Amino acid sequence: MKLRIVSAVAAALATLSLAAPTANAAQSESSAFAKIYLTMIVSQWTHWSPDSKASSHAGTLRAGKSYFHCRTKGELFHDNARESDWWLRTDDDTGHRNVYVSDVFLDEESWSRDSSLPWC
User: Fold this and answer.
1) Signal peptide position in this chain (predicted)?
2) How far is CA 64 from the centre of its chain?
């Protein structure tokens, strides 16, 4: 009898964990990638999607060394005498997770190393 109850409880818990996403779903998405540190030369807006539209504005990533999880193709962006459609996913300095910044504001060393980031 006890074995049946324990089995029923275990089955119910397994069903609940499959049906309801965990509170850390966004966190686990980022932690699937290693953090690679690169340096931004200016502070810039972060975006919920890989584009520069004001409607996707999330927060701010300050100039300096920051970690990045991965990179993806997005909107072609022109600035800092560079042009790129690569967007880097990070967590910004205003508390937003899994947001994007263009790679055009990386310093020279980081610009040459951002290809080491995995695809998102």
Assistant:
1) 1-25
2) 17
Per-residue model confidence (pLDDT) at position 10: 43
Beta bridge partners of residue 47, listed in sequence order: 57, 100
Number of domains the chain is built from: 1
Q: Are 35 and 28 in contact (CB under 8 A)?
A: no
Q: Is 84 helix (H, G, I), strand (E, B) or coil?
A: strand
The full 3-state SS of 89-103, as one line of letters, equals: EECCCCCCCCEEEEH
The CATH number of whichever domain residue 111 belongs to comes to 2.30.30
On the 0-12 / 13-18 / 19+ scale of CB atoms within 10 A, 29 is: middle
pTM (two decimals) = 0.73
